[in-house]
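User: Hey, quick favor. My workstation is busy. Could you predict this chain's structure for me?
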Amino acid sequence: MKKSSTIFLRIVVFLIGILVLGICIFALPVIARVMSEIAAELHPAWAHIRYPLLIGLYGSAAAFFYALYQTLKLLGYIDKNMAFSNLSVKALKHIKYSALTYSGLFVLMSPLFLVAAEADDAPGFLAIVLILSFASFVIAVFAAVLEKVLQDAVRIKSENDLTV
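Assistant: No problem, here it is.
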């Protein structure tokens, strides 16, 4: 049962990765171009935001893909019955840092999104950006809690192994 669950989770992680990769290849350049055009109409001094915006978006995508990679490693540890190991704790720590990086990049880019949302009069656009940032922050907190619990479990397991 456990093996089929991890296989299902691997497939889901792989499909999410393909979807985000498609967005990175096809949608992000268009989004950056449109936002820079809108910003140039509203504030001519902001006409050059396309490349900083792309750097921030692709940086957040890199953090996202690194978190997916760490998730696959964690699922591999579960398959090998190494769920309660320091390697799993390390993978959760990397997931936490990736989620914080993703959230931080979106917070840093929020002024760029604010200019585009103001020009297009679309408060929903800014809400989506804030939701993505908040969701990744929640994932970081959840990973930190799991990391702490798993760290305590590994410590207790190692103490029990020594007493036997």
